[in-house]
């Protein structure tokens, strides 16, 4: 029921929104520790602290305090302590341990570059973690690049440092480095008997440093043994209860983003095999935390979040039969799961079609599922929430496309203006929840409709559906968006004369592509776009291996295809007013892409264009960038769309 004095959404509302950024279930199944992230608007930064809540339900209790970052919690095997990362003492995050019954946290590390995600030994005596090891090169020295992967979005240049594994006693003492060499190690996991550690290790070749394999070794760093070779990217190993098998995530092909669940003999004496099908993929979200595959107590099943058409489920995968049964499946997106196999329990974070960061628990089979806490219950109690639904469309190709449709409360009372939002990826899906795109809610509060479609190329609908877009960016999915618009116009839901398009990353590509191919849109917003596939290949941190996969070939073999599918090739025909936004530290879709699009539109002079650069912003600045930048980002989008789609404003003349 709508609140009688419901408030409209505004861009500033995100400053008071809270986010459950991560959670972990204790091994005994009794407790959940979660990271509550809040915004300090005055300091223009984030504050995150750890909270405990009973898995059976009850009041939460805060266990860390302060105006710093406390994150990545992990329970000790006996569930009495929590290891976590914190920057409370200034400088990079270090490893701390705190008892769940209170008291001060103990600092365990003092490393120059900080510590990474910890993993407890089975006896609780030690923790293994990854940490950056910087080179001795003086600041400002020339950077010598010998491999294609030399920078990473959100991190910066990585050519002068490596990430290695360390072990530290749980009671305190010196952290001991146990891996070395010209590779990066991460995702350490102890075997059930504590005799081995499995981990992911990158390859060292000049063109293969983005690839990784699973390795095992003893806690002393001896007996190093490679376990996988054929999977192009093996990550997040998890030991079976008997210690004989490792489960992990990885794509089928190099450059693919669709992750599957694999198992492999821990001795490395057999090839890994997929236990999920080609048409089933692991769900991952920009604001979610992907956890390692969770084995059942008897080792017969693996619990994992799997993507569906527009949602995601908790599914139990049979290791031997490759069959799966859904434990939790409904109209929500499961963004993280954590399991306590011995207790037969799981905890999960999810997003509804309105909010993200809801925390719940259930039995292993999904029964007794319950909501434990909605940290934004009070925040959202008096809001003018949109009417939201998942809607099916039959597009130009005749294939089913499912989209998230948001209408003003009560439906809008007649044809309303429409924002078409295009998700990133393209092999991804629409993310649910306010914090991803506050400007949706602001526009709907002002009488707009928002449609975000999962067209051809999206995840959750099988390999063929995703692969149909490879080598056909824009050509096969733009018609699907246009057909959905026509359907909404024909039924009288939206005003066909007041339609805008927006998106970020691949969505930015699509907005830039659309303005050069159609006059359907009155306004466009292109966030962090791929504007020129030829230059993106050589300047993006992932372009050199992702683009050849998505284009089905190398640029030097398919030069004409790369050019044909680049929005800058048709930007000279665009007459749609276009807003471009990009972070200056974006390494995924570097700001040069936005610069090329802006220059082409400005030079052609056929449409208004504005370019906003965000200092320090990376590819995900809209989701977790500086809070003031996020507010400005949403406000500017709303202003641009409303300005050029005003009822009394004629479309821009060519």
Could you characterize the architecture of this molecule?
- The protein is of the alpha+beta class.
- It has a domain at 380-644: 3-Layer(aba) Sandwich (Rossmann fold).
- Helix content is 15%, strand content 33%.
- The protein contains eleven helices and 38 strands.
- Helix 2 crosses helix 11.
- The longest helix has 18 residues, at 627-644.
- The radius of gyration is 25 Å and the shape is globular.
- 51% of the residues are buried.
- The model has no long low-confidence stretch (mean pLDDT 94).
**CATH H-level superfamily of the domain at 380-644:** Alpha/Beta hydrolase fold, catalytic domain
- Round the mean pLDDT to the nearest integer and report it: 94
Helical content band: 10-25%
User: In the CATH hierarchy, what is the class of the domain at 380-644?
Assistant: Alpha Beta
Low-confidence stretches: none
Tell me the major beta sheet.
8 strands, mixed
Radius of gyration: 25 Å
The secondary structure category is alpha+beta
CATH topology of the domain at 380-644: Rossmann fold
Strand content: 25-35%
